[in-house]
């Protein structure tokens, strides 16, 4: 199982654990309720699948291509199906090679894979925190996420999709440092 599949599994676990009764609750992402975050995660999975399969499509950030019209009680099932398709697409070693597109933006495929691997883990944490779940991230996967976040952290802060880096004590794990670099406080529960 590749690292993206592992972070997709984290995301699906958090989505399955999110009670639809909490869909209007806030999340650590100031722009997202629980429902909006799950929709964003599902849409990101489709975007990542398209990248791996070299599908170039315009992207409407206000659309809901995976969960639009799906009853909240069925969201976990719909997300799991999309997650399986995304994981299968990135399981092909060729998906990581050459150039691909993030919607219509050309980028190195490996960069897209790294960004989305980190994205799925970070948003799994956001959702887990918002819905009172525990998210267990193995040390080696925490390092993979940190490796994905580190090179883009300043660009993320400049672009507004990461918050200011959160100071941590010495000895913080790679996962905690990844959260911190992306503007998330790993001590938040």
Automatic annotation (TrEMBL):
Transmembrane segments: none annotated. It comes from the Bacteria. Residues 14-128 form the Mycothiol-dependent maleylpyruvate isomerase metal-binding domain. It holds the Pfam family MDMPI_N. InterPro entries: CHP03086, DinB/YfiT-like, Maleyloyr_isom, MDMPI_metal-binding. GO terms for molecular function: metal ion binding. This is TIGR03086 family protein. It comes from Pseudonocardia broussonetiae. The lineage of its organism: Bacteria, Bacillati, Actinomycetota, Actinomycetes, Pseudonocardiales.
């Amino acid at each position: 199982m590749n690292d993206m599949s592992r972070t997709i599994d984290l995301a699906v676990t958090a989505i399955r654990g999110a009670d639809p009764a909490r869909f209007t609750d806030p999340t650590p992402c100031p722009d997202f309720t629980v429902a909006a975050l799950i929709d964003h995660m599902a849409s990101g999975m489709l975007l990542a699948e398209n990248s791996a399969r070299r599908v170039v499509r315009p992207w409407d950030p206000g659309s809901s291509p995976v969960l639009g019209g799906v009853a909240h009680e069925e969201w976990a099932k719909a997300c799991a199906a999309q997650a399986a398709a995304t994981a299968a697409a990135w399981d092909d070693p060729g998906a990581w090679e050459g150039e691909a597109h993030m919607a219509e933006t050309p980028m190195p495929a490996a960069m897209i894979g790294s960004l989305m691997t980190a994205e799925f883990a970070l948003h799994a944490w956001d959702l887990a925190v918002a819905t009172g779940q525990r998210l267990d991230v193995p040390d080696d996967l925490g390092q993979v996420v940190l490796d994905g976040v580190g090179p883009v952290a300043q660009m993320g802060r400049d672009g507004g999709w990461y918050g200011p880096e959160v100071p941590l004590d010495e000895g913080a794990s790679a996962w905690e440092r990844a959260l911190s670099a992306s503007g998330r406080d790993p001590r938040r529960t």
